[in-house]
Each structure stands twice: as structure tokens, then as C-alpha cells.
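ENTRY TYPE: protein
WANTED: fold as C-alpha cells:
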Amino acid sequence: MNSGLSCTVFLPGESQGIIGIAQASSYSLRIEWGGSTVEFQYHALTAARGGFDNKMLVLTATDQQGTYSFYFDSKALVEAMSGYRLPPGLANQLTNATPGKGAFRGVAFWLFLGSAILVGLYFAVVALSDKVVDFAVEQIPVELEVELGKAAAGEQLGDMQVCSATPVNAAISEIGERLVQGLGETPYEYRFKVVDVPDVNAFALPGGYVFINWGLIEKADTADQVAGVVAHEIQHAVARHGLRNVTARAGIWLLVGAVFGDVQGLGGLIAGGAGELAALSFSREQEEQADTLGLELLYAAHFDPSGMPQFFQKLKEEQARLGLDLPSFMSSHPNTDARIANLEGRIATRGKVMTTPLSVSWVTVKEAGCLPAHHSDADKPVAITPEKGIVEGDDAP
């Protein structure tokens, strides 16, 4: 209801009633009187007949102060609350406490209709789960996505050290900046960190937080090969693949809420799974999309696009020779050979590109080593403090 509804308020332990104004909403009843306010969720209310001639409708509720009683004109209260979905218990009490036959049929009707709609939505969501997940992801604001990525990045930085060597960070920053410029307009501010992890891997978190393992830099023969992996990971972030995969784990009712614009419950669930984001695997379609769009990004940023399939081929051969596990960006779905053939075919069709070398040689980058150090700020670039051997965001320019 839009305007207030007059009622008589009996405070806990008081026998004298005072005039109050009640306001109903979707989930609660709010009552104001003389500068004071109480609000009770519908499930906390009970209803019964009362008053001198037993023609009034009385709602009661209890909090830490005691029991409150609110006396209403029956017809006015029914009209005010009939448009909301009430708990079945309260709806039945209101029906029984309302004089005159059918006085509260409106509430019962809306309860029935609301239940039917929710049941229909449930089966619709199950039948169209992929499309519903995609639509739910579209409802999640970029600000929430960035906060999620920041939380996940903070967890990663708490578990590992970053590489503080100047040539390493200069090279990765330049690679990252050129790729981001190749994207054109983007809603994210990308951050790139090299971490002291020997595994050959890289991953991008929601909101543009990109991590590159030192093991990948050691394994790569050229900056173009690293750029190929980073471009692939950036496209996962652009397409919100990680966010979608976490969202897909949500329950049906959270997805229904997100479809209708309520993303708070979904956001809380996703935030609770922030630590899992770095370990998520991607589907065949997602990997193919990241490959294809990543290759286009290499062309736009004037890197040698052959670096991507070359690096994939190198890791595939070493995996076969040494029995190593393939990194996440070379997931076996789709097959690695098919991915390499697809990339090489696209390059053959597209042709060569005028490449621009990095301002620092790749030999210098690898010879500099990692120089592990602590860094706790996910948003700020790595800054070197040689005296302490500690790298903190507060020291960043």
C-alpha cells in the first residue's frame, strides 16, 4: 500500500492504546507512532479477531521488549495486504479472523497464483538452465564482479609471493598494456601479477585480475608465446567465463531471484566461492572462444600470433615426453591437437602481422630471475623495496 493505515497500538505492558500509522511492504509491516517505529516480518505476526464488538482485526508480535498488539479495521487491513505474498499461517489466520464470507479470498488467490508462478519458474529454469545462467550473469553489475575478483586475488596473494625483478614486471606490464589497448573499450581495469610458482600456468579472475606463474615465463622462448597465453586468459575475463561457471553452481531459487533483478543472494554465494575461481576449469566452447578471440587480440596488439600455437605445441611435446600434467589453459577439452590445428589454420588464412618487439629483451627477463617478495595489495602494481625485500601496494607509485 502507498499511504499509511491508521491503527491503535498497545505497547508491551501498557493498557492504554495510542494511534499509530502502519505501512505494509512485500515482506513486513512497519508501524510508527509518536516518533517511534517497529517493523515485523510477516512470519512473526499472528492475527485474530478483537476489540469491543469483536469486529476489529488484531495483529500481535513479540520482540525483546515484549508483545505488541495492533488493532485495525478489518476491511482496511485486508485491502492493504491482499496484494502481497503472505506466509500460509498468517493468511489462514487472517481469513478466519475476518468477518463476512470471502473477505480474504484475495490473499488466498494471490497465494495460490504466486505458488503456481514459482513452481512454473522452477521448471522453466531447470529446462532452460544454460540460458537462465547466462541471463543471471548479465544481471550481475561490474562493480560486484570486480569485488569478487579482488577478493579472490587477495586470497591468492596471501598464499604466494610475487616476482619483484624489474625486467620481469616491466615486460609483463608492457605485454598486458598492449593487449588491453587491443581490446578497445573495456569495463575493467586490468592488473597483472607474476607469482613465484614453478608450474607452467596463468589464470584470469573476474574483473581483470591476471596472474602469470614464473614457471610459464621460464618455459617460454619468446615474449610472443607469453602474450599468447595472457591474451587467452584475458578473453576468459572479457567473456565472464569464470563468473558464469561459479554462477552455474547456484541453486534454482537464487537464479530465479537474479532473473528478476535480485542479485544480492547470488552475489553472496559467488563471493563465498571466491577462493575456487583460480582452480575452475572451462568448457570446450569457452576454451575455443578464448583461443579464437585471444588470437585476434594478438593481431590487434601487434604480437606474433604464431606464439600461441607454438607454445601449445611445445608444452604438448614436453607433456608427452615427461608425463607432465597440462596447464589449465591447455585443458584437454577440446583436444590439444585440434586447438593447435585450429589456431594455425586461422593464422594461415589471416596472414602475418607487423609485430612490435618489447622494450626489454626476453633474454634479460629470464636472466633476471623472479626475486620472490611479499605483496598484499591486489589493486596496485608491484613496487620494489630492495632494502627490505618486501613488496607492498603502499609503496607503489
The longest strand covers residues 56-63.
